[in-house]
Design goal:
Layout (H helix, E strand, L loop, with lengths): L1 H20 L7 H21 L8 H25 L1
Helix pairs in contact: 1-2, 1-3, 2-3
């Protein structure tokens, strides 16, 4: 249960950060936070697949989740334009 709560908090922070980095390309604070949670999974998958290792801990988790959220937001923005 504790791991789930920490994951949700890290994802929310990452989504907010990604929204701040991509000003004008986000979907609003609340949706960006949800995207951050999804981005945490995307970032984790990307880092494992590419065999990239950064230090462990909360800061590393936020960095990894933010990278995943940025990729996910950019992908959603691209799909939004195409549709």
């Amino acid at each position: 249960m504790e791991h789930l709560i920490i994951s949700l908090i890290v994802g929310a922070i990452a989504g907010w950060l990604a929204g701040q980095i991509l000003k004008g390309k986000g979907f609003g604070v609340l949706v960006n936070m949800v995207i951050g949670v999804i981005g945490a999974w995307v970032g984790s998958f990307m880092f494992r697949t590419l065999n990239i290792s950064i230090s462990s801990g909360i800061v590393a988790a936020v960095i990894q989740a933010t990278v995943g959220a940025l990729v996910f937001l950019l992908l959603l923005g691209f799909l939004k334009k195409r549709l």
